């Protein structure tokens, strides 16, 4: 009996993983967001049911370009929601990527290795 042959698993590069993740996130934000429920969220629904929705004040950001998950100035609702979703996703990904880059573990420099070699060993 011969041993079964196995092919070595190819490692997925970080760049490919990031690109595929970005494409999937943008597709979900731009396409699938249009099919989200048009019903009010839980808090808004309860406010309407209990009768205090009319006493609510507008948010200070109610006149922002992306208020109510739409894009100001874009008449087509599907396109308006898609643009808002894509831009919102890009903003979150840029902020998260920047935070990840700022907090990433850095490889030790030759100076760090020299400094560690000079430190006395601790018991």
Automatic annotation (TrEMBL):
**Compartments it resides in:** Cell membrane
Reading the lineage from the top rank, the first entry is Bacteria
Q: InterPro entries in the record, alphabetically?
A: PDGLE_dom (IPR025937)
- For this protein, the parts annotated as crossing the membrane are 12-36, 79-103
Which parts of this chain are annotated as the region Disordered?
Answer: 46-68
Q: Does the keyword Cell membrane apply?
A: yes
Q: Where is the PDGLE domain?
A: 15-105
Q: Which UniProt keywords apply?
A: Cell membrane, Membrane, Transmembrane, Transmembrane helix
List the protein's name: PDGLE domain-containing protein
């Amino acid at each position: 009996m011969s041993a079964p042959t196995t092919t070595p698993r190819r490692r997925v590069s970080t760049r490919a993983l990031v690109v595929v993740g970005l494409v999937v996130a943008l597709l979900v934000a731009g396409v699938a967001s249009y099919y989200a429920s048009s019903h009010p969220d839980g808090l808004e629904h309860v406010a309407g049911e209990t009768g205090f929705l009319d006493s609510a004040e507008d948010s200070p950001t109610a006149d922002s370009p992306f208020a109510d998950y739409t894009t100001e100035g874009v008449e087509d609702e599907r396109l308006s929601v898609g643009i808002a979703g894509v831009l919102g996703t890009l903003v979150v990904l840029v902020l998260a990527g920047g935070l990840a880059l700022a907090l990433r573990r850095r490889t030790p420099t030759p100076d760090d290795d020299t400094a560690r070699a000079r430190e006395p060993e601790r018991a």
